[in-house]
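Usage example:
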Amino acid sequence: MRLKNKVALVTGAASERSIGWGIARELASDGAAIVINDIPARRNELEERVGQLNAMGANSVMAPSDLTEPAQVEQMIDACIRAFGRLDIVCSNAGMIRWESFLDIKPATLRALVDINVKGNMLVCKAAAEQMIKRGEGGRIVVTSSVQTYFHFPITPVYGATKHAMHIFVGSLALELAPYNITVNHIGPGWVQTQMNDTSPELQTEASIQSQKEAIPLRRAGTTEEMASAVAYFISKEAAYTTGAYLPIDGGLSISKYSY
Amino acid sequence: MFDLSDQTVLMIGELSDLAAGVAAVFKEAGAEILVVYNSTSDPNLLRLYPDGTYLETSLYDPIELASTLANYTFQTVVISPGWFQHRSFLDSNASDIENAYRINFEHAIYSAQSAAKRLIEQGEGGVILFLSSVVSKMPTVETNLVGSSLASLEVIATMAAVDLAQYGIRVNVVAAGWLENSWAEPLLGVEGRMKEPTDIPLGKVGSTKSVGQACCFLASPMAEYITGVVLPVDGGFTLTKSLAQSPYRGTRQ
Ligand SMILES: NC(=O)c1ccc[n+]([C@@H]2O[C@H](COP(=O)([O-])OP(=O)(O)OC[C@H]3O[C@@H](n4cnc5c(N)ncnc54)[C@H](O)[C@@H]3O)[C@@H](O)[C@H]2O)c1
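Running the assembly step on the lines above writes:
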């Protein structure tokens, strides 16, 4: 129970197959009180997740908020404080992908991806950091970026750009928040079979799944538990001296153009 | 496009088909070619080079090298490392490691050092270019020694750029992608790849000429404010992830 008396917020955790849910369960099993977030339209799922966490013996509440709206981000942070009196750990994980090659980029998609993948993360980190600074006991922020931090795919240029942006953002945030003993790091999931990937049916054919596996040196998709382990490390006391770091968890996907 | 007729280009290092192709482009741009090559190089490669002055020397010995260079005047220096061999990690032995680092790292450093000292003596600045490969930035199958030795060299190059800036000497690296040359043969030999490499965004493998043109640009006054960069000339090869397995499956069974 290494996270006893700690309070963690995890955004984008409504789906039972999501990385956010993997993170929430991992932190709950280590004793943290959990606030889980997703968009208000997914309130029912959040309710179910809270039920599951409480059944595990964890303390948890939900905070449905659209993170592209500054006022709703504030409400979410307020909900954390109201429920548990503090906020120690923030896993800024909500995000969205669209498959549109460069010439097909639509203004609405462009706006939507920037709104959640860039602005959403920034608003959450800002509101959370203000809380942590006010309390004066330091804190931990972990952003979920992607292997696309460094490696890009022609079918997802905007997504790639927003994820690469997080690398620079996390670095400058780590610099600015270091005097307050707040560490900021990010994880780069490779391929995880979450709902996010369901939105591209062409990626779900037998042949496509096979070729995605072959492109990964370890020859399989990652699990949400494996993403959560990396987050658990970044927030552990062992990682207290690690800030501004990026850890890909991708089975080797981003090492090279090809697997062997 | 480039008029380098006021330049003598010193090509120094191992003889190779890549360096020969680069020399040919400089020659076409009007430059005089001076080739100082290591005595252990394969002399058969000399037939690939354009007209110029050719001197055999020992790159092991910085003092001998310096005395050789003292007799010549040049404005641009091209450092040509020469250990380009496919070796699986498990099959790399101590002498492979030794050779890769001696040729691609130590010799290249001595060459650059001696040439830089001569440029400083001449007192008019100059340009030093290192020939490298994109396997130094992206690991590929069976390139652990080439890639790591060239990666080491690129750090030296960028630090040399800092040190030599005060003398008006610019230092840059040109990193080649897959070329139609001897090193790439095992890869390009895979059926059909030569014609249609779908995994290179520009749709074709490169030529030594394309590398030479990048070198001419960096040696020209057009690049007067560019120093310490690694310029990939790879048709976009390293930009993307391929969903296929490597067409080059290695030499290890
Ligand atoms: N699954 C993968 O292969 C993969 C790979 C790399 C990175 N990622 C990243 O992992 C993170 C989690 O994604 P996932 O794979 O679990 O998919 P997911 O779709 O299950 O989770 C993302 C969640 O974010 C929520 N969300 C979107 N916009 C929101 C908003 N405005 N406000 C609040 N919540 C919002 C969604 O409703 C969704 O539940 C994302 O940032 C994603 O980019 C996933």
